[in-house]
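Quick start: load a record and inspect it. Here is OPT oligopeptide transporter protein:
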Amino acid sequence: MTQPTRVPADVTLPELTFRGVLLGALITIIFTASNVFLGLKVGLTFSSAIPAAVISMSVLRLFKDANILENNMVQTQASAAGTLSSIIFILPALVMMGHWQGFPFWQTLGICAAGGMLGVMFTIPLRHVMVVQSDLPYPEGVAAAEILRVGSAERAQDAAEDAGRAPAKTATGMGDIVAGGLAAAVVSFAASGLRVLGDSVSGWFALGGAVFRLPMGFSLALLGAGYLIGIVAGLAMLTGLVISWGIAVPILSAMGDMPAGASLAKYATGLWSSQVRFIGAGVIGVGAIWTLATLFMPMARGVKASFAALSKAGAARAGSTPRTERDLSAGWISAVTLVLVAVLVVTFQVFLSGAPLSAAAIWKLVAYAVLFAFVFGFLVAAACGYMAGLVGSSTSPISGVGIVAIVLVSLLMLTLGGELLSVENGVQMAIALSIFSTSAVVAVASISNDNLQDLKTGWLVGATPWRQQVALLIGCVAGAAVISPVLELLYNAYGFADSMPRAGMDPAQALSAPQATLMLAIARGIFTHQLNWTMILIGMAVGVGLILVDQAMKRTCRVARIPVLAVGIGIYLPPTVAAPIVAGAVLAWLLERTLRRRAAQAGQPYEQFADAPNRRGVLIASGLIVGESLVGVLMAAIIGAAGTEAPLAIAGEDFARTASYLGLAVFVFVAVLFWRRVLKLA
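Running the structure step on this input writes:
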């Protein structure tokens, strides 16, 4: 079956429809909730473009007048909203530090929506140079376009079948998402709800005074996340695990004395939490700076091209530009940007309204914060867009950008916020303002990271850019409206690391929110001059060493590389979180090897032979993430309503060991089913 080509510029089809916007809003709720839960649990989010495209096709094919461009608008809106959930990398720090007792709806909406929509505005002028003229691969954008094309071809096949001219239609792939989602939902409910399955197991042993740990988690969402990030990032995270639990913790435990009565697990975990995680912070910081440095020239070219594009906007308004090249005009970009800056000003003013400062001092701090968010956000927009085009949205260093931002804005407030720092609780307010300012930057960066991916999809299928940009703006507002209630629900049900909403809650069930915890520690350390610089400097040295090794491998090896940011995340994440991600990456690698071997035996090109199996693998992995994440949100609602930690549990503490073995068995069983289902198409 021949797939349809790009919709010509002289053909006009319905794109931004009411039903499409409504469907996009519903999908937004699903993927935003899923990404918020996953991000708080493990510090990772996933690109929702591909599953959103599949769901859109499956629903809109019920309408005979639906088309590929309408499907594209739905996935554009939904993927933008899902990506905005990256704000959870920083915003929960305000609750952790006690500045907020929950997540105020209007403040959260304001910072998320304004920041995200500014990300859209900043990337519009970059579309031509980075999407149309660039040879960047844009992996998720290209994949989403191919899925939309397949769906459009199937619609044509349906019409031919109705006329008796074609065989039975093929599946869209919705069944693969549902299969993965149901499997993960059932297993997650059995583990977090009924408590009959364990979620992790660890082996502890000591050699001399050195403590070692062999960890494994059983999260199917993390298995899916590992499958999506691939073997290179997976091995980098494994390297981080080895550095953390095979080198750093054993050395520190051998150098110290274990307190009397303490277990190996408690002693070693304490060393990792208070010492080793800052090594990971140093590695992440160096990786982020290196990434931004390597992207400086492309970023500069993108900024230059943006001004050139704005100067040509009059031609677009006059209608002399083809439909497929019409962006929002310079006038609209300027007007919307001014409105968004005004929203940021109001949001920051409300945030600082309780500070014991004069009105002039408050407005001065508001100006500092908004100016920083605007200027630094504009700079990272091009960098994040380029990085997403190069390696994909899921592996772009948003958390690294956040770390750089929190350091810069903290130093800015420390230098210019003299009046704030001199009042009672002024340091606490300065830390909170730094975190809130960084939240705006993260919102800008995350949307910039995703939007060019969506615009690439639109360009490949022949969408109208300005309509797609409107869909992106709608997606930002829809996603921002969902984030606050979901965060409130999850916080009240599980709590965050070192921050529980109620006494007596189980800290083992708390969401780790690793990036927010790290950024709070960095901001506090800068303002109180108590940052663990020894471990951070060790981490920075490790990061520099990894960069040097990576550059050497770049010259000598065509495949093997070491993504430094992924190594840092592997050091920083809890080991039972990182381990199943590595398992998912290894599963993807083994499947690829098997498919390559079968393609060679069949005498076919690998890309053609493996297209359908690879697509099925991506959809199953996405389903695993969505299924487990939605059960996590559902359990949060049940826990919040019941007021107890495990209202549905049918197994007690004495069953924990058996539950761990059962959890391992089920995890392996699902991985085998994943393997077999993918290979059915080969």
